[in-house]
Design brief:
The protein is α/β, with parallel strands linked by helices and about 475 residues long. Helix content is about 45%, strand content about 20%. Strands 5, 6, 7, 8, 9 and 10 form a 6-stranded mixed beta sheet that branches. Strands 4-3-11-12 form a 4-stranded parallel beta sheet, with helices on both faces. It has a 3-stranded mixed beta sheet with strand order 14-13-15, covered by helices on one side. The structure holds adenosine monophosphate and zinc ion (ZN). The site of zinc ion has 3 residues, from loops.
């Protein structure tokens, strides 16, 4: 039994998929006007945990993440750079895919781009005009929130905050002034224009996700995710458009992760208080450690980003890796004990129960660390046998199908010239020639090889570049 706290309704509910054994998930993807920051990656890693957990539980997951490649921000930024929208956004799209790979975020089944789905959007808008939920004003089309009785149900807007006689053109605005919002924006100097059945113009941000989610997942689908800042206006407006158009719910479960904050404020581009993944890689932060940090605070809690928190994440991850190293390399007498299979079964149950309870990652990790503690005691007492060690290692790796934090590359996958460099660096370190060692480390990082110094020697991970 898997339970989630559904933002829609605000209650914990047992998850019932629309089709048994399958889950259809839509997650709002990046607005590609700049590099994603690690606050954005908190959202994508929470969604990755959700998806990997379902897969671990044997569900078939279909995951769609859109790419917002036309909206107020991408248009403004591409104009400022003097590039076409397509040329401008392409570089950020590719950088985003690189980052996903480095953070070991499992790829979505599809990454639909807004600019490639204009007919799907105008079809919905035409339907909303026909049904009287939308109206035209000076070449733009607006959604009339007064016509949709369910307006405000996701973000729980007070009726007195609904300004039903006002309109807003911008994609983002405050909940305290919920107004009629733009589905379609009239042509403007310096903006891209599509000639369509509803006239010339370009889409508002919200209609993009309504069109792309239902195209690839149907309506309703199971789970719609995002960060809490998406609840209003973005998701509220998605619900209004899609449900008014089709008369059916958009999604059954709405999950929102809380913010990554820094010095007490939401990490965001507009405040300039952010780190990109590249910024942290330049500071030699291991991406697995960042992933561990972003993953291990429950998604509905605010996560305060500090470098101390990264150090703690690194120490916790190192404990798991040291434990694996120990059981994989020490020699144990042949055979299997009675105790270990039981401990593994107990740990698995606790891990699954934890994540089944609204993705309670703390309970899940406690199960793993308790297991490590117990096995370590058995090792000390000489009670671990060879088969126990093999099964324990396999078990920890099986949990990593959900966590995705352990290195996976085999040494033999590294080309010989790079292996030689790793050896050279080891030698330089032994000779205390740290300048040379650091230089080789940088060369290796450029070639996509990340090194991690552990007490038993160096370990490394090959980060494949996006083809
Ligand atoms: P954007 O590219 O701004 O559309 O954001 C992409 C995703 O990142 C959305 O799901 C946002 O809700 C989420 N997001 C943005 N900033 C943060 C933050 N500081 N912490 C967590 N999630 C965030
Ligand atoms: Zn969206």
């Amino acid at each position: 039994m898997i339970e989630f706290l559904n933002t829609l309704g605000g209650k914990k509910e047992v998850f019932v998929p629309l089709v048994p054994g399958e889950v259809k998930v839509y997650t709002c993807g990046p607005t590609v006007y700049d590099f994603a920051h690690i606050g954005n990656f908190r959202a994508y890693i929470f969604e990755d945990l959700l998806k990997r957990f379902f897969q671990f539980m044997g569900y078939r997951v279909t995951h769609v993440m859109n790419i917002t490649d036309v909206d107020d921000k991408t248009i403004a930024a591409s104009n400022a750079r003097g590039l076409s929208l397509k040329d401008y956004t392409e570089a950020y799209i590719q950088a985003f895919f690189d980052d996903l790979r480095i953070l070991n975020i499992a790829p979505a089944d599809r990454y639909p781009r807004a600019t490639e789905h204009i007919p799907e959007m105008t079809q919905i808008i035409a339907g909303l005009l026909e049904k009287g939920y939308a109206y035209r004003q000076e070449g733009s089309v607006y959604f009339s929130i007064a016509k949709f009785p369910g307006y405000g149900k996701l973000s729980r807007i007070k009726p007195e905050d609904l300004r039903t006689s006002d309109r807003i053109e911008a994609d983002e605005y405050e909940k305290e002034s919920a107004r009629d919002f733009a589905l379609w924006k009239a042509p403007k100097e310096g903006e891209p224009v599509w000639e369509t059945e509803i006239g010339p113009g370009r889409p508002g941000w919200h209609i993009e996700c309504s069109a792309m989610s239902s195209k690839y997942l149907g309506q309703p689908f199971d789970i719609h995710c995002g960060g809490v800042d998406n609840i209003f206006p973005h998701h509220e407006n998605e619900i209004a458009q899609s449900e008014a158009y089709s008369g059916k719910p958009l999604a059954n479960v709405w999950l929102h992760c809380h913010h990554l904050i820094i010095n007490g404020k939401k990490m965001s581009k507009s405040k300039g208080n952010y780190f990109t993944l590249k910024d942290l890689l330049a500071k030699r932060i291991n991406p697995a450690v960042l992933r561990y940090l972003l993953l291990t605070t429950h998604y509905r809690r605010v996560l305060n980003f500090t470098f101390e928190a990264l150090d703690q994440a690194s120490a916790a991850l190192q404990r798991i890796k040291d434990f694996l190293y120990e059981i994989e390399t020490a020699s144990f007498p042949p055979g299997r004990s009675a105790a270990v299979p039981e401990l593994l079964a107990e740990a698995r149950t606790k891990f699954v129960d934890g994540l089944s309870d609204d993705l309670n990652i703390s309970l899940a990790l406690t199960a793993l660390f308790e297991l490590i503690k117990k096995i370590n005691v058995l090792i000390k007492d000489g009670k671990i046998l060879a088969d126990d060690a093999i099964e324990t290692s396999a078990f920890v790796y099986s949990l990593d199908r959900v966590l995705g934090v352990l290195p996976s590359t085999k040494e033999t996958e590294l080309p010989e010239e790079l292996r030689a460099k790793v050896r050279d660096r080891e030698r330089a370190r032994k000779e205390k020639n740290y300048g040379l060692a650091d230089e080789i480390r940088r060369e290796l990082a450029d070639a996509g090889v990340l090194l991690e110094d552990a007490k038993d020697g160096v370990r490394w991970k090959l980060i494949k570049k996006n083809e």
